[in-house]
Amino acid sequence: MRRLVRVLPVLAAFICVACMHSKESPFFQSFSVRDLIAAVKSDYGLDCSAGGGGGGGSRVGFQSMGSGSGEFHSHKSDSCYCKIKPDTEGSFAEAALLAGLAAKVERAIVESGFKIIGSGQKDSTSFYFEYALEDRKGRVDISGKRLPSDHYNLDASLQESGKMKLW
After folding, report:
1. In 3D, which of 144, 139, 160 has the Cα closest to residue 46?
2. pLDDT in tens, the chain (167 residues)
């Protein structure tokens, strides 16, 4: 019983340390809709400043362990709300905006060392990429929606999973 009392705190500490270290890729960790659209917003007449919109996100992760290795499954969502500038209101090119964003996302995935294993569009206002590298797979879905009062919202959902070595 004494031995168990000594081992349990050490085991619990090890598990906590393993859970604290993020296993997601740098692409997943740093992905931000606000940063993505900041690179192209002026080209398409969007104002995504604090007064023109906001952003937000959430992240959920799950890790399972056993036999010295484990798996992780993480999900992250993010969004950005922008105002369409009055001078481009009538000529706002949503398809061109999404194509520009898709090109930026694809480039970021490839520059992160991943291989794109799938891509497409669910409809004319969205796109996705699936990527992989060794034991890691991921998917990013992005969709846009024009809102009343000349606003535009972009939503992103990312999922990543893979194997991890614990010791």
Report:
1. 144
2. 555 445 445 444 444 444 445 588 999 999 999 888 887 766 788 888 754 444 555 556 555 555 456 888 999 999 998 888 887 767 788 888 999 999 999 999 999 999 999 999 989 999 999 999 998 999 999 999 998 888 899 999 999 999 876 55
Prediction pTM value: 0.76
DSSP letters for 131-163 = EEETTEEEEEEEEEEEETTTEEEEEEEEEEEEE
Q: Can you tell me the distance from the alpha carbon of 64 to that of 2, in angstroms, rounded to the nearest whole number? A: 28
Pairwise CA distance, residues 38 & 80, whole Å: 10
DSSP 88: G
Helix (H, G, I), strand (E, B) or coil at 69: strand
Domain chopping of the chain, boundaries = 23-165
Q: Cα(15)–Cα(26) distance, rounded to whole angstroms?
A: 22
| Cβ atoms of residues 140 and 160 within 8 Å | no
- Amino acid identity of 17? V
